[in-house]
Design a protein that fits this description.
With about 675 residues, the chain is an alpha/beta fold. Among the domains are: about 180 residues, Rossmann fold (3-Layer(aba) Sandwich); about 120 residues, GMP Synthetase, Chain A, domain 3 (2-Layer Sandwich). Helices cover about 30% and strands about 20% of the residues. It has an eight-stranded mixed sheet, with helices on both faces. The protein has a seven-stranded mixed sheet with strand order 5-4-19-18-20-21-22, sandwiched between helices. Strands 23-24-26-27 form a four-stranded antiparallel sheet, with no helix packed on it. It is globular. It binds 5'-O-[(S)-ethoxy(hydroxy)phosphoryl]adenosine (WTA). The site of 5'-O-[(S)-ethoxy(hydroxy)phosphoryl]adenosine has 23 residues, from helix 12, strand 22, strand 26 and strand 27. GO terms for molecular function: acetate-CoA ligase activity; ATP binding.
Length: about 675
């Protein structure tokens, strides 16, 4: 356990870091920051000059409306200019003579599986895949779903889409068939790129059959997916056998834990990547995109209703991904960078693919988990590739802390310089362990606060200059103008909690919710006219450090994954035994937060272990394994206001076993509270 002082002291960047850093002092940061806020056009224009634009800006460099009362919310950067992000991420480096530089080292789930790809080889394969997509009729503006594990082909897929102007919609490979189908339908995608299957730890995930199910679900709802490209990723010893479309006549047996994996094949729709991609032409001109053309959509949970397709556009996202990567990780040529996030989440989009590639960086892509074959795997990989900049989530740090220091110290780690964290507030205990044990009290820690919607880091320390306070994401990135306000949009005093809002656009901000601009305006701009509302609570201390405290809406952050309580509730209610469900968050020592679900059952139905198992499975099927509830409780009645609104505040207290309920004068029937306390499982 770290002593109290260690948790509350301020840590200064070490001289080895700041001497060579892009931003060496707080004075320099303050100056650059001031310029970025007072003259955003000038600030980003200078940055844009380092990128290739086919045609220059022909309208305003920045035009926006952040105020719903003045008309629709709109944001545009670099009007009329055209570019291509894939060109800037690959061709530019190859033309500069860096084609032989390694773009990605790939480390498989099995420590014996590895590979690497240079910038020029990556470009070649991206062009080939882009041609395959074109041959299948995919063109600019079409949507392509990507549902893959952490393999190099995933990056190739996203870059190939970007090259031809197709909008990629990546769905994390932990989502269920129903979730994949829902996202494909919402985005009206024309094609799906997937993989036969993959190993995660000791578990084999049968991705192709989940994909098949999702395609069938789409077709039931009238969306025909005509192209499904499949990467053969499992080794031949895993014995994937193609079948004739009926899914029978297959008896391949995997080498690893007894498993038979059948790959159903639909002629005309399904195509093996290894059969079509290498055969395609290696030449593929870029589609020159308007800076405000769509680049990708990525779904994020909504506090009500279905997930939102967060839409990012080409030009602004490119500048922001590249610039945040460069400064937050203090990137220099020669760095070996590794972000453990999955490309299925925004962190993987911006900081596994686009950000590093736009900077010409060499990175590691890791398919496996931090615990396989043992909990020293991350540090073994750090040593193997001599990683200098490392980026992971607090939930992983907390989980690894439990295994003790020896598994870390066994490895050298002397290559490390910067350690990043993202996804949720990091508790000072975990921060100090990360700093002292993983970083040997030598590295800077960057605690990066941002969102799918923001495209890149918004509040973060910079490794060469920011004095670090454990648990605080510290100061705004260039171009971000934060305020912390109360319900009436008045700034709160120092150390008071309020809503974290941003008052002017930065290049990487989302432009709309795919197909639902009104939802975009309502979710982010309606509550505080003139501001983008993050939905997070925060405080600012007397030194100006920002401390993000977590979601203010009905969202739960489980292991860094944002889940909507409404979505989990609707999955539970779909079960025939459940009449009503209310889901709240509960603190969890490793996951940060966990979900606690109250379920009201139909008359005569008993709350049994079997039912609990079924209900958990219902959520897994509907959303995905990572959303499985941690705790379910029988709730013959729920605390409600007289107008019938569920009092979640009270349920949160019950989940935590806290009888200090505060004001319950609006509650219709107080007796339900005692019943709920009496039914609270003793294991909580
Ligand atoms: C939370 C992930 C505190 C926050 C990049 C935010 C954080 C949500 C931090 C976005 C951090 C992310 N400190 N909270 N450093 N980073 N969050 O869209 O609640 O998956 O709103 O993007 O994660 O999650 P998302």
């Amino acid at each position: 356990m770290a002593d109290k002082q260690a948790l509350h002291q301020t840590y200064l960047p070490k001289s080895e870091l700041f001497e060579s850093a892009h931003v060496k002092t707080m004075e320099q940061y303050n100056e650059m920051y001031k310029h970025s806020i007072e003259n955003p056009e000038g600030f980003w224009k200078d940055i844009a000059e380092k990128f290739y634009f086919k045609t220059p800006v022909q309208g305003k460099f920045l035009e926006y409306n952040f105020d719903v009362s003045k008309g629709p919310i709109s944001i545009s950067w670099m009007q009329g200019a055209s570019t291509n992000i894939c060109y800037n991420a690959l061709d530019r480096h190859v033309q500069d003579g860096n084609g032989e530089k390694v773009a990605f080292f790939w480390e498989g789930n099995d420590p014996a599986d590895e590979g690497k790809i240079t910038y020029s080889a990556l470009l070649k394969q991206v062009c080939q895949l882009a041609n395959v997509l074109k041959n299948n009729g995919i063109k600019k503006g079409d949507r392509v779903a990507i549902y893959m594990p952490m393999i190099v082909e995933l990056s190739i897929a996203l870059l190939a889409c970007a090259r031809i102007g197709a909008i990629h919609s990546i769905v994390f490979a932990g989502f269920s068939a129903e979730s994949l189908a829902e996202r494909m339908q919402d985005g009206e995608v024309s094609a799906l790129i997937t993989t036969d299957g993959f190993w995660r730890g000791t578990k084999l995930v049968d991705l192709k059959s989940i994909s098949d199910k999702a395609i069938d679900l789409c077709s039931e709802k009238g969306l025909q997916i005509r192209t499904c490209l499949v990467v053969r990723h499992l080794s031949p010893s895993d014995e994937i056998v193609e079948t004739n479309g009926n899914g029978d006549q297959c008896d391949g047996v995997a080498k690893r834990p007894c498993h038979k994996l059948k790959v159903k094949w639909v002629e005309g729709r399904d195509q093996w990547w290894h059969q079509v991609v290498p055969a395609a032409s290696e030449e593929c001109n870029c589609e020159w995109m308007d800076t405000e053309d769509s680049l990708f959509m990525l779904y994020t949970s909504g506090s009500t209703g279905k997930p939102k397709g967060v839409l990012h556009t080409v030009g602004g996202y490119m500048l922001y991904a590249a610039t945040t990567f460069k400064y937050t990780f203090d990137y220099h040529n020669g760095d070996i960078y590794w972000c453990t996030a999955d490309v299925g989440w925004i962190t993987g989009h911006t900081y596994v693919c686009y950000g590093p590639l736009l900077n010409g960086c060499t990175s590691v892509i890791f398919e496996g988990t931090p615990f396989y074959p043992d909990a020293g795997r991350l540090w073994q990989i750090v040593d193997k590739y001599q990683v200098t900049k490392f980026y992971t989530a607090p939930t992983a740090i907390r989980a690894l802390m439990k295994y003790g220091d020896e598994l870390v110290k066994k490895y050298d780690r002397s290559s490390l310089k910067v350690l990043g964290t993202v996804g949720e507030p990091i508790n000072p205990e975990a921060w100090v362990w990360y700093y002292n044990v993983v970083g040997d009290a030598r590295c800077s820690i960057v605690d990066t606060f941002w969102q799918t919607e923001t495209g890149g880091h918004t509040i973060t320390s910079l490794p060469g200059c920011t004095p670090m306070k454990p648990g605080s994401a510290s100061f705004p990135f260039f171009g971000i103008k934060p305020s912390i306000v109360d319900e009436n949009c008045k700034p709160v005093e120092a150390d008071q909690e309020g809503y974290l809002v941003f008052s002017q656009p930065w290049p990487g901000i989302m432009r709309t919710v795919y197909g639902d601009h009104q939802r975009f305006e309502t979710t982010y701009f309606k509550k505080f006219p003139g501001y983008y509302c993050t939905g997070d609570g925060a405080k600012m201390d007397k030194d100006g450090y920002i401390w993000v405290t977590g979601r203010i809406d009905d969202m739960v952050n489980v292991s860094g994954h944002l889940l909507s309580t409404a979505e989990i509730e609707s999955a539970l209610i779909e079960h025939s035994s459940v009449v009503e469900a209310a889901v709240v968050s509960q603190p969890h020592s490793i996951k940060g937060e966990s979900t606690y679900c109250f379920v009201t059952l139909c008359q005569g139905i008993e709350f049994t272990e079997d039912l609990v198992t079924e209900l958990k499975a219902a959520v897994r099927t509907k959303i995905g394994a990572f959303a499985q509830p941690d705790m379910l409780q029988n709730a013959p009645g729920l605390p409600k206001t007289r107008s019938g609104k569920i009092m979640r505040r009270v349920l949160r207290k019950i989940a935590r076993g806290d009888r200090d309920l505060g004001d319950v004068s609006t509650m219709a029937d107080e007796s339900v509270v005692d019943t709920l306390f009496s039914l609270r499982p003793s294991t909580v």
